[in-house]
Amino acid sequence: MGLERIGRVKAALGLQFDCPVITVAGTNGKGSTCAYLESILISSGYRVGCHMSPHLLKFNERAKLNGEEVSDALLLEHFTAVENARVSLVDAPTLTYFEFTTLAIMHLFAKAQLDAVVLEVGMGGRLDAVNIVDADCAIVTSIDVDHADFLGGTREAIALEKAGIFRPGQIAICGDPVPPQTLIDYANQILNASAVIAALMALHQRLPVSAQDIRNGFAMVELPGRFQVLPGQPTVVLDVAHNPHAASTLAQSLERMGYHPYTYAVFGAMADKDIEGVIKPLLNIVDFWFCTDLPTPRAASAHDLATKLQNLGVAVKNGDDGGIETFLDPAAAYQKALSKAGEGDRIVTFGSFYTVAGVMAYRTNQAH
Q1: Fold of 228-367
Q2: Tens-digit pLDDT profile for residues 335-365
Q3: Coil, helix or strand for 286?
């Protein structure tokens, strides 16, 4: 962990930006904050580069120019530039997957004659690859306990890691209504308001945006997998909620949807998450739990998820009154949910990017 290796490659590339750069860190809400910013700025007529991670179906989702995913050919051009810069160094450093690809996307944006760049931080902030850039405006969204092994086990410890994206004399914004004291101490002055609008207000001299542009941007934004309600029946909801804070928000959103006779959950999660904390907000909403394995060694097994549900009082199998079943992959769980759900019912897929991506990939294949 550290920025020394990627910093050397950045210097060899001569990487720098000639436009305002906004970085976005946080536990939940990073993706939607970036998408809102991108949409509003495009509505204002600006040329915008937006880096987001992780991707759901294909890598190109991580790099967008003016709302469009960058082509494979253009990405490869900048992958090559990064690799050439790396191997040109004496004692050439190794780079992680995230460091290498983030550097390539930054290099692409720096060469694209843009008016603004929005960069989503991967994890934490202080030691994240995105933090090699001195942002003109740094946003920290919500702060909760996640990735505790790397970032610390308290909101205060995690906030300090995320505050590492702030820069002296530049704009620092916190979208968490109750920011930990460590963040306040680090930042000195925080605009504790709607993070996106605060950022645009603070950058108004360099990126003028009208109130109508903001309204249009919010209205037109699309963010796959973040409480995404798909058209048709049964109702299908996709949400990458994978920690207690996000699961609680998902539960509130589901409660506001109106009446559905039955709710089926396609649920897969990483083993290092607070799985009970993710499940609890949804216990009184979900009738059938379809637990699934995921294609990564970090994942909890479907059997482990089922055991945790049983420990929280959910019956394994109880006819049409609810229950738990296990599956080898999200597609199989989703197929079973589709076969059981009536027109008025709903299927909620959540717990991990992998869970949502598995269902999205299945739906895409069926469409073709």
Answers
A1: Protein-Tyrosine Phosphatase; Chain A (3.90.190)
A2: 999 999 988 899 999 999 899 999 999 998 8
A3: coil
